[in-house]
């Protein structure tokens, strides 16, 4: 595990996705692991922290989330853009070696039986809050964030450091057709306390 | 109305928020209008296009959305960062002149009885899909996109043009405490078709 990875207090964990990055969703059940890319993940509540994520019915990750009741939302970086696109395009059903093909390496945080993707900038371990109507009608999943970590080179003391960190650690923001944007310049309004 | 504003086909309207910008929500009912900022808005479906947005119980905009069954999600630009922060901080209940104080000017698109905010880069007119359980339990609202427009200087033919447009037209991505990022550099993976 990368020595820069540091725990993030749960009350500030929403900030890891508040700026709207494209994310990777991962889950595991009975030895089967998968990782997929998703653009539609979003904060839902501060305390306890919750988020939403939209997962298509054909995704194997969806089945693993439902069976295990757990999943990870993680924030890939600019250097992971090709991997992110591939994880959003291929399916485990059609490419059983999908993770190896995309170059995904997994690791674990102690106390969490979940697959975390190496090289990301932030990780949110989530407990699925079952909402069958949302899941069936809208493919919409709600998770409570139960663990949060970030690479302290790019997120520290509750704030992203994109303006000073290496550009390859910036987050990705997907549009369509292989077309992403990296996050850009910092804008401070008023006397930012950065609390 | 700004002469650069152009209609966006509904099937590509999700792309206006797919990169995770902080947005402004506006609504109107019986002559009362309000605009608020929200970081938690997200795509939900392609066809018919839908989105989610999280709106706190104390927001006047929430009441206007519920009563009219309509709302607008719009994408503010870098030059609107102070206005966006102010619209996310002040409430109509406490500051009846909130919109004037923030410098908001409203306009309309023909056929839509909704207040649109001038100077944004994109606008999504939405019809509320009532989901009382989500609204009460999670402050989560679902809208079907029924109209979409963008400033063609920064969004054209289904794609953002941040890499060539004026920097002040870039989208805002909020973290916390007055701390935003602008969207940044383009990243193309593979042979992007930009379809």
Automatic annotation (TrEMBL), chains A, B:
<dbReference type="InterPro" id="IPR052174">
    <property type="entry name" value="Flavoredoxin"/>
</dbReference>
<comment type="similarity">
    <text>Belongs to the flavoredoxin family.</text>
</comment>
<dbReference type="GO" id="GO:0016646">
    <property type="term" value="F:oxidoreductase activity, acting on the CH-NH group of donors, NAD or NADP as acceptor"/>
</dbReference>
<protein>
    <submittedName>
        <fullName>Flavin reductase</fullName>
    </submittedName>
</protein>
<feature type="domain" description="Flavin reductase like">
    <location>
        <begin position="15"/>
        <end position="157"/>
    </location>
</feature>
<dbReference type="GO" id="GO:0010181">
    <property type="term" value="F:FMN binding"/>
</dbReference>
<dbReference type="Pfam" id="PF01613">
    <property type="entry name" value="Flavin_Reduct"/>
</dbReference>
<dbReference type="InterPro" id="IPR012349">
    <property type="entry name" value="Split_barrel_FMN-bd"/>
</dbReference>
<keyword id="KW-0285">Flavoprotein</keyword>
<dbReference type="InterPro" id="IPR002563">
    <property type="entry name" value="Flavin_Rdtase-like_dom"/>
</dbReference>
């Amino acid at each position: 595990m990368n020595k820069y990875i540091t725990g993030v207090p749960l009350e500030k964990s929403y900030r890891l996705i508040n700026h709207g990055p494209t994310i990777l969703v991962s889950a595991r059940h009975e030895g089967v692991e998968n990782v997929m890319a998703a653009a539609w993940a979003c904060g839902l509540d501060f305390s306890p922290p919750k988020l939403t994520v939209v997962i298509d019915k054909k995704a194997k990750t969806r089945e693993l989330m439902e069976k295990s009741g757990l999943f990870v939302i993680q924030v890939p970086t600019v250097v992971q853009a090709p991997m992110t696109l591939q994880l959003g395009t291929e399916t485990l059903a059609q490419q059983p070696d999908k993770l190896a093909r995309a170059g995904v390496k997994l690791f674990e945080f102690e106390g969490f039986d979940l697959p975390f993707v190496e090289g990301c900038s932030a990780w949110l371990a989530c407990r699925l809050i079952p909402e069958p109507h949302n899941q069936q009608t809208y493919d919409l999943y709600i998770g409570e964030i139960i663990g949060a970590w970030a690479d302290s080179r790019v997120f520290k003391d509750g704030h992203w450091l994109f303006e000073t960190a290496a550009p390859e650690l910036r987050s990705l923001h997907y549009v369509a057709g292989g077309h992403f944007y990296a996050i850009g310049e910092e804008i401070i309004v008023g006397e930012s306390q950065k609390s």
